[in-house]
Specification:
Length: 171
């Protein structure tokens, strides 16, 4: 069953995957340490309506390391992490987001796609449920593998402070 909508709550630090209005999956995430914001260079997670512009990493092994959306041939391990402690690990799969709201998260100095905002896997030692990213939505590797398999290109994504359960009419 393919998802038709993803809801990401910055407050709850949760990602809810939906198909035909029903919840298909629910994962903990880690969004930006700097909070919500749309400005380029802010290190914040952009809010609003987005879509999945590209799916990257199909066929790569779990823990595959990506730099510039290209696999490096490395697989994340604690030893590799110790050799590169400053890396912002982008692992396993990437769902690259594109904003859908002009001058809010699309175009100008607030463009989510040009800011390289992704949903992606991260190192196994990173906590979930706590904002720690540089703007992206980080997930556990096994979770992002499951999400990737459910998510087609073009899937709608809403990023908001509100938990899914608190919305008056769920998208």
């Amino acid at each position: 069953m393919a998802l038709d909508h993803i809801h990401i709550s910055l407050t709850a630090q949760r990602l809810i995957g939906l198909s035909a209005g029903g919840v298909v999956c629910d994962f903990p995430v880690s969004t930006a340490l700097n909070g919500a914001g749309e400005q380029n260079g802010s290190g914040c997670t952009p809010r609003g309506r987005h879509r999945v512009r590209a799916r990257i990493g199909e066929g790569q092994p779990p823990g595959a390391v990506f730099i510039g959306r290209r696999p490096t041939g490395e697989i994340w391990t604690p030893e590799l992490n110790a050799l590169h402690p400053q890396r912002d690990w982008i692992l396993s799969r990437i769902l690259w987001l594109c904003g859908e709201e002009p001058l809010i998260n699309r175009g100008g100095d607030c463009d989510s796609q040009r800011r390289y905002i992704y949903i992606h896997g991260t190192a196994d030692d990173q906590p979930m449920g706590i904002p720690l990213s540089h703007g992206c939505i980080r997930m556990r590797n096994l979770d992002v593998l499951e999400l990737f398999d459910l998510t087609p290109a073009g899937c709608q994504v809403t990023i908001t402070e509100q938990p899914y359960s608190a919305l008056p009419q769920n998208p």
